[in-house]
């Protein structure tokens, strides 16, 4: 024992002829040599093996303390708004996967160009509210964007039902339903590269309404204008030639994933520490907020902007029906910003927020600064409707 403790480094006469080979191979196997900055070319004859083994490698790598500086985020792990969502299952493509594995290909159109359509769905009491209406709009949007090989309605519904059952989500749940143009055979803009069919994503989360529907929210007006669907004719040659080229903006009635117009307005709202931002149309009239439709009450009349420059929301249509049902006068027209500043009541509508009272706009108190009676009455009517109606989620009937 004492002899081994004072063993000096280097070759010894008693080592034998095998020692150099032994020392060299052991040294190499430990990886003590300086690490290469860049990897060697991958032997693509092992590509199939790589695909099979990589999921297990990534599983192990998540438990390694030291990670590559290229992959490691400099930010601490954030707290989730709803901690229960740390462990959830999502549908991506044609399978249900855990949260950390819920990813699409880098060749998918949603990555290449934000090329997809989406819907927000609300789940209450084992039912999905307005599911058929949301699917109608999704298919309309996909058609408007000339999607091919679209997932069928029954396939989408089955994916939704399977994902909700797998998570045990039958209430207090929001679903982000996305349909992309699909994966491309090579990177590029052209839809001609999309030859795999559409990619379906079903992302359910435990999520209560995202706004304060009891005390109300605040809004500011953004400088970012809402997309206009107007077609502009521009002559590139003398008028007598009869040659005109037409240009058309991306119509806001298409529920697409290219949301930069809305996101820029939301940035302004965040900077002003407001809940959301009002967006005006090209003529300066109120269109909607960055995320919701908007209503006002003045002298007992309920007004909302035309859906010329905004998404005609499904929650908006539902609330408009409730306004009539509750015997209020409903008017749909162009509305200026000052009319919202001087309104008696204001609220916004959307799937994630439902019906949210607005108590301040651009620093101006709306009404008396509290949730108004018309707003409250319609909130109650809407809540009752969502609790009683919807498409039931089929289950195995097990308890």
Features:
399 residues, alpha+beta, 9-stranded mixed beta sheet, 7-stranded antiparallel beta sheet, 10 helices, 18 strands
Describe this structure in words.
- The chain is an alpha+beta fold and 399 residues long.
- Helix content is 28%, strand content 23%.
- The strands form three sheets. Strands 7, 10, 11, 12, 13, 14, 15, 16 and 17 form a nine-stranded mixed β-sheet that branches. A seven-stranded antiparallel β-sheet has the order 2-1-6-5-3-4-18.
- It is elongated.
Whole-number radius of gyration? 29 Å
Helix content: 25-40%
Estimate the global geometry from the Cα principal axes: elongated
* Helix/strand order, N-terminal first: HHHEEHEEHHEEEEEHEEEEHEHEEEHE
Mean pLDDT: 88
* Structural class category: alpha+beta
Strand content: 15-25%
Low-confidence stretches: 231-247
Helix count from the secondary structure assignment: 10
Work out the number of β strands: 18
Q: Whole-Å distance between the termini?
A: 65 Å
For the biggest sheet, the summary is: 9 strands, mixed
């Amino acid at each position: 024992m004492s002899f081994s403790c004072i063993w000096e480094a280097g070759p010894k006469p008693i080592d034998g002829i095998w020692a150099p080979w032994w020392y060299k191979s052991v040294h190499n196997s430990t990886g003590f040599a300086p690490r290469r900055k860049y990897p060697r070319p991958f032997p693509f004859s092992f590509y199939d093996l790589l695909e099979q083994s990589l999921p297990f490698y990534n599983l192990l790598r998540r438990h390694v303390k030291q990670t590559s500086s290229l992959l490691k985020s400099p930010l601490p792990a954030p707290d989730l708004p709803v901690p229960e969502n740390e462990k959830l299952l999502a549908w991506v493509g044609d399978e249900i996967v855990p949260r950390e594995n819920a990813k699409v290909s880098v060749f998918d159109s949603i990555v290449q160009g934000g090329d997809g359509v989406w819907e927000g769905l609300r789940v209450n009491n084992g039912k999905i509210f307005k599911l058929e209406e949301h699917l109608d709009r999704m298919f309309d949007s996909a058609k408007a964007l000339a999607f091919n090989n679209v997932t069928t309605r029954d396939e989408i519904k089955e994916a939704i039902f399977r994902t909700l059952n797998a998570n045990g989500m039958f209430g207090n749940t929001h679903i982000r339903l996305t349909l992309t143009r699909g994966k491309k055979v090579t990177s590029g803009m052209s839809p001609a590269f999309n030859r795999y069919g559409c990619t379906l994503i079903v992302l359910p989360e435990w999520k209560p309404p995202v706004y304060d529907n009891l005390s109300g929210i605040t809004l500011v007006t953004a400088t970012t204008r809402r997309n206009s669907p107007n077609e502009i004719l521009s002559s590139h040659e003398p008028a007598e030639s009869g040659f005109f080229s037409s240009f058309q903006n991306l119509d806001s009635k298409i529920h697409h994933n290219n949301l930069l117009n809305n996101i820029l307005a939301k940035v302004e709202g965040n900077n002003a520490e407001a809940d959301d931002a009002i967006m005006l149309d090209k003529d300066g009239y109120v269109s909607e907020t960055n995320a919701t439709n908007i209503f006002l009450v003045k002298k007992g009349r309920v007004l909302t902007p035309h859906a010329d420059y905004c998404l005609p929301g499904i929650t908006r249509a539902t609330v408009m029906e409730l306004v009539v049902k509750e015997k209020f006068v409903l008017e749909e027209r162009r509305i200026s910003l000052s009319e919202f500043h001087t309104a008696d009541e204001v609220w916004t509508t959307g799937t994630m927020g439902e019906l949210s009272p607005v108590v301040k706009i651009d620093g101006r108190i709306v009404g008396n600064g509290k949730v108004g009676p018309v707003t409250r009455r319609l909130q109650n009517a809407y809540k009752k409707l969502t609790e009683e109606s919807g498409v039931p989620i089929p289950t195995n009937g097990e308890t």
